[in-house]
Design brief:
outer membrane lipoprotein receptor (LolB), chain A, Phosphorylase Kinase, domain 1, 19 strands, disordered N terminus, disordered C terminus, MucB/RseB N-terminal domain-containing protein
């Protein structure tokens, strides 16, 4: 079952805390058209699965840089990453010093070791192909491309040839520009330890949708899919009273938090208002990955690890209804959610 703890999920968004200027990074892709017959099969899926297993079962430590590009600038963070088999993955963000234990298949863990369910979602939406040899972090690597139906590259993975973790992961928009990258700049992989089983277990990470009937019966309304082939993989109500919804296409993740109440704009320090399609939303980071708005007596908070156009389309597809009483104070709700999501304050 996929259940992303709120504290871990939001800690993953530390990549949005440090802001630097700069346009989206343009790259030239070797894929300029539909792939040939040899690339029509998912020849890279097994490689990606092996790397996902290694990312959970091998001991390693290193420094990883994460950068997100958006229309208004970039957001970057440096992470010190340490994985100990049996103990799990620990990620420390610099310069904040925020340290979190994380599943490497979630946002907090860098999406470097997706679960079997996420790999299935990826295979439904894309072709995953072996793209040959490469190098990253000074280490030999196997290169895997994730292709859209038109043959353009949606993502690139550099997989350590020495049976280690993912060395680098890039997401590209439809115009071939890198919009998200996570790359190790130094990495130490410890020798493999004798395993009790010949084949390491791969977490299934099944869908977390059992609460949907109860949520519907309680009056919660939300889509089961968002634009960009984003599928609902998690939906549950937290003890704090908000509803968490997780959407993914196997590469990107859009997390939605719905809190009953009204939005207090005076609490939105470091956020700025934007008008989109006749509605007001509030945006905090220049990459456009954090948004919040009020709709029909609820406050919607969205955090995206996705290309800007996908994140914008997801926000537009969610409810944007007239707000009763025009920005009445929320009291708790949105203020509580906002206090969770910024580890740099």
């Amino acid at each position: 079952m996929i259940r992303l703890p709120v504290t871990l999920l939001l800690a993953a968004l530390m990549v949005l805390g440090l802001v630097t200027g700069g346009p989206a990074h343009a790259v030239r892709s070797s894929q300029t058209g539909p792939p040939d017959d040899a690339e029509s099969e998912d020849t890279g899926l097994a490689l990606l699965r092996d790397a996902a297993i290694a990312g959970r079962t091998r001991g390693y430590s290193g420094t990883r840089y994460v950068t997100v590009w958006g229309a208004s600038g970039t957001a970057s963070v440096v992470q010190e990453v340490h994985n100990a088999p049996g103990a799990g993955l620990t990620v420390r963000a610099e310069p904040s010093g925020l340290t979190q234990s994380a599943d490497p298949g979630t946002l907090a863990g860098g999406m470097s070791s997706p679960s079997e369910t996420m790999l299935e979602v990826l295979a439904r939406n894309y072709r995953v192909v072996d793209a040959g040899e490469g190098q990253a972090c000074g280490r030999p690597a196997r290169l895997v491309h994730v292709l859209r139906t038109d043959g353009t590259v949606a993502a690139r993975y550099w997989l350590d040839r020495a049976a280690g973790p993912v060395l680098r992961r890039d997401l590209l928009d439809a115009r071939g520009r890198i919009v998200h990258t996570a790359a190790f700049v130094d990495l130490t992989v410890r020798p493999a330890t004798p395993a009790r089983h010949t084949v390491p277990a791969m977490p299934a990470g099944g869908l977390d949708l059992a609460e949907i009937p109860r949520l519907r019966a309680a009056g919660w309304h939300f889509p089961t899919a968002l634009p960009g082939r984003l599928e609902l993989f998690a939906a549950h109500r937290a003890a704090a009273g908000h509803v968490y919804l997780g959407y993914s296409d196997g590469l990107s993740v859009v997390s939605v938090f719905i809190q009953p109440g009204m939005l207090d704009e005076e609490r939105l320090r470091d956020w700025h208002a934007e008008r989109r399609n006749g509605h007001t939303i509030w945006v905090r980071d220049p990459a456009g990955q954090e948004t919040i708005w009020a709709s029909g007596g609820h406050v919607y908070t969205v955090f995206a690890d996705a290309p800007a156009d996908m994140a914008d389309a997801a926000v537009a597809a969610l409810p944007h209804e007239p707000v009763p009483d025009l920005w009445a104070r929320l009291g708790r709700g949105a203020a509580r959610v906002l206090s969770w999501v910024n580890p740099f304050e």
